[in-house]
Write a structure and sequence with these properties.
Elements (H helix, E strand, L loop, with lengths): L9 H11 L8 H66 L7 H5 L2 H77 L19 H5 L11 E3 L6 E3 H18 L4 E4 L4 H10 L17 E5 L8 H9 L5 E2 L13 E4 L1 H5 L2
Antiparallel strand pairs: 1-2, 3-4, 4-6, 5-6
Keywords: Coiled coil
InterPro entries: DD-CPase-like, VanY-like_core_dom, Zn_M74/Hedgehog-like
Protein name: D-alanyl-D-alanine carboxypeptidase-like core domain-containing protein
């Protein structure tokens, strides 16, 4: 047989169960983001599994078609070999005098021997043809059964994986929707500026990574609670969570003076404040991963600065090493995607 495994993928099923067995805390942005990313990864894995299975089955189907074509060719060759012998046998039965068999029937010894030899040849040839035909028939039946099993398995596998993918897609959409609703409750106008809610979907940060520094479009930038401020989705979600923790400590959200900067804005500040702004096209502000803060955080070793330094990493936010000295920028904080992915 073709060595096909049983349909379905245990990995996809385990991932599906892993994303549905435990409901995330609807008020915990970090947990919601993590669940959204898990659901998105499970969907990607299941989709890859389906594509891989389809490719495997397509190759097996192609190989089977080659075998069937070889079988058809073999049948044609057998027919060519069979036809002269069949014509000879037919002529013997049709001639009333017995044709070349007449001497044998009339008792002519020499002629009888020749006729007997011809008869032996005919019988031997007939037996070989029948044996070949039998083998070809068995091979044909085997290939036909394999073809039927292949097609049935292909349909079943695709149906099962499609159901799993649909379930994962719905799960991912549900978690992202819950995340967006939580952001709205916390004062984030997800659809601000006419953009879609997908801008705050942490599973779509790959879209933001496709654009050059400072040239991110609005539909990949998620608004913050502070009007006019926005970041890449994962950084924005983490910052809102950090700001809520800050609010519980100080009674108000974090004060923000700057967030994402487009290329023109970065060029402007670079020329206005030489030595205090990165070269245009190289700033983390242009990636939607940095903020400049106020409200006390901008004062080195203030209570606010120290609290943020001690707690920022729990949300993926850090005060980069260079900002402690060269240039000295206590107000500048950055989101570390690698650190955030571990939370």
């Amino acid at each position: 047989m073709l060595g096909l495994t049983s349909p379905g993928t245990a990995h996809a099923r385990s991932v599906t169960h892993g994303t549905t067995d435990r409901k995330p805390d609807p008020t915990n942005l970090t947990e919601l983001r993590r669940e959204a990313e898990k659901a998105s990864q499970a969907l990607a894995d299941a989709t890859k599994a389906l594509e891989k299975r389809q490719a495997t089955l397509a190759k097996a189907d192609k190989d089977l078609k080659v075998k069937l074509e070889q079988l058809r060719t073999a049948n044609l060759e057998l027919a060519k070999v069979r036809q002269p012998l069949a014509d000879l046998v037919q002529s013997l039965y049709q001639e009333p005098s017995g044709g070349d068999m007449a001497p044998f029937m009339n008792g002519d010894d020499d002629a009888s021997l020749r006729a007997l030899s011809d008869m032996t040849y005919l019988v031997s040839g007939r037996d070989e043809i029948l044996a070949d035909a039998g083998r070809l028939y068995q091979q044909e039946q085997k290939l036909a059964a394999e073809a039927q099993e292949l097609r049935a398995t292909k349909l079943l596998v695709e149906a099962q994986l499609s159901v799993e993918i649909d379930t994962l897609r719905k799960r991912s959409a549900t978690v992202v929707k819950a995340l967006s609703q939580t952001l709205v409750k916390l004062g984030v106008r997800v659809n601000r500026g006419g953009r879609s809610g997908a801008a705050c979907d942490p599973t779509r940060i790959g879209s933001a990574e496709q654009y050059p520094n400072g040239l991110l479009p609005e539909d990949v930038l998620c608004p913050l609670q502070q009007r006019g401020r926005e970041l890449r989705a994962d950084a924005a979600i983490a910052f809102v969570a950090l700001s809520e923790a800050y609010r519980k400590q100080f009674g108000k959200p974090i004060c923000v003076t700057d967030s994402y900067r487009n290329l023109a804005q970065q060029q402007s500040i670079f020329y206005r404040r030489p030595g205090f702004a990165a070269v245009p096209g190289r700033s983390n502000h242009g990636l939607g991963l940095a903020v400049d803060l106020c409200g006390g955080v901008q004062v080195f070793r203030s209570v606010q600065f120290n609290w943020l330094e001690a707690n920022g990493k729990r949300f993926g936010w850090i005060h980069p090493a260079w900002a402690y000295s060269s240039p000295f920028e206590p107000w500048h904080w950055e989101y570390d995607p690698k650190l955030g992915s571990l939370l």
